[in-house]
């Protein structure tokens, strides 16, 4: 009977199998999913870094070509003439500026990456030309941020300083607005090393930001955005225009791949949305979840099938063991409904319990018989010496009257009676049994005459073996009582030996009697179930005692052929 609130062990088994399956699938899936995500992440980094390395080279070439053009023009007399501002007339000034604009246009045509060129004097004089054929000349009001940047350029002479166009404060009225009216990278080179920035002139080159971002734009995929960040983490170029001018802040939902550029302290960053490149991983995750659910359902089906073939027989065995534990041995024979091994286990347990029941019954019968034997022994112990002394008195009286035959008979009778009265045990040594049979046979020969010859065949090595008491006496008695003619000499052969299994096997042969098969069968059946008339009680007594003492190993049966009647005893 199941306890209330206690989970059935079969449910626990199914639950544990299910949990184990889910755990294994989850572990394998987790490792696979993590490995796949890691591979995607590393693959992204590898591709982006390879692309950024090429972009770094392309951007360096682009900036180098623009710097070369500035360096070549810095050696042009027109640039120094403009910077000196020593014109004899406004006409001469206009001619010089026009020639400068023509040179700028030629330089722009020679380098498609360049958006425009400009020359700026410290006092504000400006000449600008762009790829859109927009040239302007005039005075430029230099802002404080522009003045600061120009001082940096003088400190870095003769090298070119690069800034994003939106980093320099240039008003819409300024002549330079034409050069920076769109996102550009602005390179500035000082023409000389005058003490004050207002005393010198500066050459400016603008790289179109769209052309710049093309150099690293190939790294953009899966919805990512690539940006170029300066040393102050400010975005100076980006594939998305909304990022320009903002400060770069990494976001958790992106895989931020950073590639440091070897010049200007700049950094290329590719921001790949995780939700995009993990879309395939999510498909794998969803597939894994579905696979896990299907595997769990499959395990439940398998577990239910196993519960019929596996847990069913085990449950039956547990119930039987519980009954046996409560000393309830009347268990039902199990049905074959599971695995053959478990069914055999159930049958073996059932067979063992049946043997145990049989043993207990035999033990109870033995105990009852023992109690009776003890009672009889107590009765026999009342005064065995009284009977023995009485027989001796009668013997002496017979001797005094010269009746030696009666005296000898009394001696033999005393030898037969004394072992019965003195020792109530169930067993003794085989030599004692043989000695008793010898005295008993002599007594029976006195009673029935000397027509019965008695022979014992037993090896000396068996004489000391433990042997059940008086087990052969009823058989010998039957030989005399049912022995046939009293005028012909008959023989009794007792052959005692041991089998290979160390069991006793005894053959008693009476040569004076012949019985047909029906009679033999009747006697064999009667000794197992003695009749109320007391027939065959001697053989029944032997059969019962052997069963009580030795169980299934004890047996008695009769046979008959031309050699007489044979009684076989085995135990």
UniProtKB/TrEMBL annotation:
<feature type="transmembrane region" description="Helical">
    <location>
        <begin position="284"/>
        <end position="306"/>
    </location>
</feature>
<dbReference type="GO" id="GO:0016301">
    <property type="term" value="F:kinase activity"/>
</dbReference>
<keyword id="KW-0175">Coiled coil</keyword>
<keyword id="KW-0812">Transmembrane</keyword>
<dbReference type="InterPro" id="IPR050640">
    <property type="entry name" value="Bact_2-comp_sensor_kinase"/>
</dbReference>
<keyword id="KW-0067">ATP-binding</keyword>
<dbReference type="InterPro" id="IPR036890">
    <property type="entry name" value="HATPase_C_sf"/>
</dbReference>
<feature type="domain" description="Signal transduction histidine kinase internal region">
    <location>
        <begin position="374"/>
        <end position="450"/>
    </location>
</feature>
<protein>
    <submittedName>
        <fullName>Histidine kinase</fullName>
    </submittedName>
</protein>
<dbReference type="InterPro" id="IPR010559">
    <property type="entry name" value="Sig_transdc_His_kin_internal"/>
</dbReference>
<feature type="transmembrane region" description="Helical">
    <location>
        <begin position="13"/>
        <end position="36"/>
    </location>
</feature>
<keyword id="KW-0547">Nucleotide-binding</keyword>
<keyword id="KW-0808">Transferase</keyword>
<dbReference type="Pfam" id="PF06580">
    <property type="entry name" value="His_kinase"/>
</dbReference>
<keyword id="KW-0418">Kinase</keyword>
<keyword id="KW-0902">Two-component regulatory system</keyword>
<keyword id="KW-0597">Phosphoprotein</keyword>
<keyword id="KW-1003">Cell membrane</keyword>
<keyword id="KW-1133">Transmembrane helix</keyword>
<feature type="coiled-coil region">
    <location>
        <begin position="356"/>
        <end position="383"/>
    </location>
</feature>
<keyword id="KW-0472">Membrane</keyword>
